């Protein structure tokens, strides 16, 4: 599809509000502009989208290391005492026969964060290289990342509930480990990175003009 | 100027300009280039969202006031509410995690329900709530951070983990959370921000011209 039969709002000097979707005319000057309906700041494209998204993604990669190497949950009882990282927790669940739960926790705490980080990296690199390769599939990938991101909070909730409930002195104790903090930060940062990324940048290389702001 | 552009819509994912066409109830319009959902025409949007929201408000109280589950070991019983779990984690020194759970599982859903009621109840009664753009913006901004459905799955996973070692007694809030998850999903599906904006604007202009 060429740009003649695919009119882009930014190409026509129009700007769509990110809150209420009202399309209004962009003045094109550097002065701040606000949506006439809802008062949100208007931008043709999210300002600094790529840089901020990179910063958040890199921070997430760094925090992903302690999230997986440190202890997520300590479980102690009269007969046993164990310290589990995220992965060893999944393996333990699998060995003790809770396959369903093991799969759910694996998907939420291992697969989804990695999927998010790799996908965002791929999207960022392709946008920076102004790639025109398969924008439809890349938009789909972005939508997937946006939709599944929240589910990695699962382990945080499980640890919270167990650590709060199982406080029976010498009989049984569950404690949340330091990995919970790092992992919570990874979830929040990757969600922020996903919000910061502007999917319209995927489509811009198909256009001749350059849009800033 | 805005009126002339009112029938135009720009895709929020690829910025393609398209003309806004009226839809049959229950249908949605998708971008012809990238396939993103542009807008929907939900049946009886305001009425249904309001009904689900009010029901969810009541269930939300139940979900937060009653214990989720209790465990029993040698006659000792220990039960927790969601807020109790947050407090307990705070006392154990995991303050950032505790704050994260408080925000995503309690504060954001409460704010969402409050904003929806504040916006839709007056609209239903033919009034315009003051400062409505602020509440519409809040609603849009906090929407990704409400995670009741994830919490529900977390509750189920903890339940299975606990049954391996303890006798578990399910509490009132467990059922409340299950119902709340369904009601919030129903409210989100029925809610149509575009329609609410249009109605509030029309009503305000109507009141101003009088």
**Helical percentage of chain A:** 40-55%
The CATH class label of the largest domain in chain B is Mainly Alpha
Q: Roughly how many Å is the radius of gyration of chain B?
A: 21 Å
Poorly predicted runs of 5 or more residues of chain B: 1-5
* Count of the domains of chain A: 2
CATH architecture identity of the largest domain in chain B: Up-down Bundle
- The H-and-E topology of chain B, N to C, reads as HEEEEHEEHHHHEHH
Explain what this protein looks like in three dimensions.
The complex is a heterodimer of chains A (213) and B (210). By secondary structure, chain A is mainly α. Chain A is 51% helix and 9% strand. Chain A has two domains: 1-44, no CATH class; 48-206, no CATH class. In chain A, strands 4-3-5 form a three-stranded antiparallel sheet. In chain A, strands 1-2 form a two-stranded antiparallel ribbon. In chain A, helix 1 (49-69) packs antiparallel against helix 3 and helix 3 (99-128) crosses helix 4. The longest helix of chain A is centred in the middle third of the chain and has 30 residues, at 99-128. By secondary structure, chain B is of the alpha+beta class. Chain B folds into two domains: 1-41, no CATH class; 44-209, Butyryl-CoA Dehydrogenase, subunit A, domain 3 (Up-down Bundle). In chain B, a hairpin with a 6-residue loop joins strand 3 and strand 4 (37-40). In chain B, helix 2 runs antiparallel to helix 4. Chain B is elongated, with a radius of gyration of 21 Å. The model of chain B is unreliable at 1-5 (pLDDT under 50). At the A-B interface, strand 1, strand 2, helix 3, helix 4 and helix 5 of A face strand 1, strand 5, strand 6, helix 3 and helix 4 of B.
Summarize the structure.
Chain A has 213 residues and is mostly helical.
Question: What are the main properties of this structure?
Answer:
heterodimer, A: about 210 residues, mainly alpha, 2 domains, three-stranded antiparallel beta sheet, two-stranded antiparallel sheet, B: about 210 residues, alpha+beta, Butyryl-CoA Dehydrogenase, subunit A, domain 3, two-stranded antiparallel ribbon
